[in-house]
Protein 1
Amino acid sequence: MIMTRHTALFSLLLFLLASSSAHAQRRPPAIEGTATARERAAIISVLTDYVEGISSSDTLALRRAFHPAARLQGMREGVYYERSLPTWTAAIALRKPSPLRMAIRSIDVTQTAAAVRLDLFAEDGTLAYTDYLSLLQEAGRWYIVNKIYHTHD
């Protein structure tokens, strides 16, 4: 089969697009905004407390991660669902520990405010939750103040 120059260029373009798409799935999380390395580390520490808390039913770790007035929202069977932090941590305390692995997809920081997208994977590697977390820095400490999430089936 004879390839014309246009066909060859088109094939090369398709190859490059496919390669960049596969590479994009493996890239590190996007970290944007004004955060210093210390602030990024502090935010990641909060995220670690959060994931360790829900994985091991550790309400003390969750209280370290969340502001006391934090709200948690999602959809349950197609209906808006909201809980306060005390109600949610009480439910977590009753759950059997279930190890989760986090993948930070993005962190965007503007001085004392941050937004994080976090995917949580079950022990078998399946995607369990996608969280969108809002954080605020109060008195030099970062806290999750709002969590919206999607539960994957």
Note: Residues 40 and 110 are 11 Å apart (CA to CA).
Protein 2
Amino acid sequence: MAGEVAAYARDEMGIEFLPWQARVLDRLLEVDGDGLWCWPRAIVLVPRQSGKSTIVRALAEWRAAGGGTVLTTSAKLTTILDLMREPQLRYRDRDGFTVKLIRDQPEIAWPGAGAQGHRWISQASNQMLGRGFTVDLAVIDEVQDVVPDAWES
């Protein structure tokens, strides 16, 4: 699956992963013999400005494009707005895509999106985070600043 994410990143985003990014994706997307995630929860710790957001963007876009519902969150609204700025600009004029802000929180819906699936939603963390929909992939940025009630929801 990491190869699929890398191909998506190259073809849709115009980027090539650095070697460390490719290794992280290989491990994050590793499945066992039954096709279940080896690492259903994972923490990736890297210094600021090293390319973590690139991995998150590629993984979120790939999963949403494939039919999943993706939720990204952070304690700071500015962090999620920064994360989604480039994808929103890239998709806003494409046929079938819906790019919007709901209460200042960004969402991108791919063509064919329904109530569930083909969506990437970003919300600032709070006790109501992710309520009302099923999430296939959740990414918490700067988890140390997110209240436990938010990530437990």
Note: The first strand starts at residue 69 and ends at 74.
Protein 3
Amino acid sequence: MSPSPPPPSEPKTYHGSCHCGHIRFSIVSSLPDVVSCDCSICTRRGALIQRIPDADFHPVSPTAASLADGTHGLIEYRHNTMVARDYICPVCGILGYRRPRLGTGVWAINVRCLEGVELDGLSVRKVLGSQLSVVGKDGGEGGKAVEGEKKG
């Protein structure tokens, strides 16, 4: 008989930041589903991502209001479908969090930016983001990147 899985841990507050501290935030999570994605951008950035609901994401700098109205002063990178928003520090270049394209009401947090997380102790699930649809030059979706465009 195999041992039963450990019970889920209780949610706790984690504080996060980019390298220079320009981006600061906190989240409430037990980090139950940390993922490593193999799409072109995630592979290059090396982020480990945990999705959390809006209610569990608490931006400090920039503020929630500035994220909502676009006056946040961060680099906002969009690619492929142009729906997901990656928020990157303009000083140190670190991605602290993003709005995923399929996650209305959800934030995707870069777990590597959280203080006090023992990365080797996390269970990380692999996600095949490279197999998600990409948008071709004509605006239609296809299964592979169009020449001259980046897939991801």
Note: The mean pLDDT is 85.
Protein 4
Amino acid sequence: MPAPSEKLSTVLAPTVTLAQPFALSGTTSGLADGTQITVTVVGTDGVPHNYPATVTGGAWSVTVPAGTLPAGSYDVTATTPSGLPATTQGTVLAPVLAPAPLPATIGPSETVNLSGTLTNVPVGTPVTIELAGPGGSVQTFTWSIDVAVAAPR
């Protein structure tokens, strides 16, 4: 049973993308520095992922590796050794590519412009496009773009 002075909180879990690790954190009171808590993250697949966290200066944090959770919502529960829980929720966004349609056939001397919109992908994430040709040949193109976001005026 938790001690009456024990308090544990989680910060609102972020909206993240599948391609990036993300941090979860919270605060404590009544727990000594060095106290180990367990942070459990459960995605839409129902699989629990447990991460140990150590209380330092009344706070804790963990990093969830990229690709750990499927797209959709997720629940986070931090639990003290005495069983006191604190829960929050967040969202994992899947990268989405909305490509423009391609012609059904392309001649050997034709130029084709590819375009599309990529959303929910962090800046600098490599993007790979593969084009399959006759006989199973494949051309692969990979690039990444770092775009500075201008502050609103």
Note: The two ends are 53 Å apart (CA to CA).
